[in-house]
Amino acid sequence: VHQLQRVRLARLAPLQRFLERHAPEVANHVKDVYVDRMARTLHALFRAYHAELEKLDLAVADRNDVVAVPEDAVRYALTGRVSLAKRGDGFSLGDRAGVLKRMDEPPLLVHVAIKENRRYPFEELFRSSLRHLADAALSETHFVTAFLHGADQSSPAVQSTLQAIFRRAFSATLEHLENKLFACHDAVGLLLVVRLIERARTRATRGPAPTASALDAFLGDCEALVRPRLLTILTQNLEGVKKAELSRLGVVSTAPHYVARRYGELHATVLALFPDECR
Fold first, then answer.
1. d(C-alpha 117, C-alpha 131), whole Å
2. Would you call 199 helix, strand, or coil by DSSP?
3. Distance between CA atoms of 66 and 185, rounded to whole angstroms?
4. Considering the entire predicted model, what is its pTM?
5. CA–CA separation, 101 and 140 (whole Å)
6. Are 229 and 184 within 8 A, CB to CB?
7. What is the rounded CA–CA span in Å between residue 258 and residue 246?
């Protein structure tokens, strides 16, 4: 699509200026048709991309990934031993914070990842979708300004057109995010997503005004969905500790208890990602 815009449509910008001067009703019709077709195209594109990203989803945590889960939930079914691997699931930050350094990297190529048998946690898929949207919004800003309006990028007309073009794509992305959050138990993933949103909003302000305006509103909607789910998961962990039955948490030994380990990992994750807020 962007190739078509640059190679063919961009050359017709002088004709659109001519229509604006001598046949404004025709110029408005051209703009309306373009906005409608591009909105449909982007909506279909991002719905398809989200469906493809689902094939790369790596389940990191489930409903048993709370701090004070009964010991039975972290035992191997065959041996009856407590699973060391499960002691930190959903709580250990590890190298997952690296996603914050990859914000400027291109979106994931699903067909390549599938061929290489790769899987990614929630925050990496969100980063990829967000980068895809940001790239599309920036490209559309330049084209809409040059072709449809021939005006300064900060003009209200450009901002209004950009909002109309991306309204459906933003809506599809928010719908996909909401569906993912419904079954999400990954506290670390959501903490990282909140950080990604905050940094994306800051970076958006450095670009063209219409792009920043469109993305800021969209990112605000994303944050409004993510934070309540994150609060729910953290509250579940807190309530789990308050209501924990000591008899179901295993025996006391000299080894670190899995509940203490989970709490320590979650606390360290919060401190690492939100150092200023934790002071």
1. 22
2. helix
3. 9
4. 0.87
5. 26
6. yes
7. 13
Q: Which two tokens stand for residue 94?
A: 């590890």
Amino acid identity for residue 83 in this structure: S
162 in Cβ contact with 144 (< 8 Å) = yes
Q: How far apart are CA 194 and CA 231, in angstroms?
A: 12
CA Rg, the chain, in Å?
Answer: 24
Q: How far apart are CA 68 and CA 70, in angstroms?
A: 6
Helix, strand and coil in the chain, % to nearest 5: 70, 0, 25
pLDDT by 10s per residue, the chain, length 279:
666 777 677 788 888 889 889 999 998 999 999 999 999 999 999 999 999 999 999 988 888 787 777 666 666 555 555 555 544 457 888 899 999 999 989 999 999 999 999 999 999 999 999 999 999 998 888 888 888 887 766 778 888 899 999 999 999 999 999 999 998 999 999 999 999 999 998 888 877 777 778 888 899 999 999 999 999 999 988 888 887 777 666 677 767 777 788 888 888 999 999 988 766
